[in-house]
Amino acid sequence: MTWWKDTIVYEIYPDSFYDSNGDGLGDLNGIREKLPELVRLGVETLWLCPIFSSPMKDGGYDVSDYLKIRRSLGSLEDFDQLVKSLKDNDMRLILDIPLNHTSDQHTWFLESKKSKKNPYRNFYIWKSGRGHAPPNNWISSKVGGSCWAQTKETDDYYLHLYSDWQPDLNWENPEVRQAVTQVLQFWIDRGVDGFRLDVINKIGKEPGLPDVSVDPATNLPEYPEAFFQNHSLSHRYIQELRSRLIGEDLFLIGQTQGITELEAYAYAAPIRKELDSFLQFEPTDYYREKKQSQEAFIMGWKERLFRWQMIDAELAAMIFFGSHDLSRTVSHFGEDRRYWRESSKALALLLLSLRGVPVIYMGEEIGMTNARYRHFSQYQDIRTCLTYQRRVLEGGEPEEKVLRDVWETSRDNARYPMHWSAESHAGFSVVKPKLSPAINYRHVNVARELNDKTSILSFYQRMINLRKVESTLRRGSFKPLECQPGVISFQRLWQGRRLVIEVNLTSREKDRTFFEEGKCLITTHSKHKRQSKLAAYEGRILVIQ
Ligand code: NOJ
Question: Domain 103-168 classified CATH 3.90.400.10?
Answer without folding.
Answer: yes
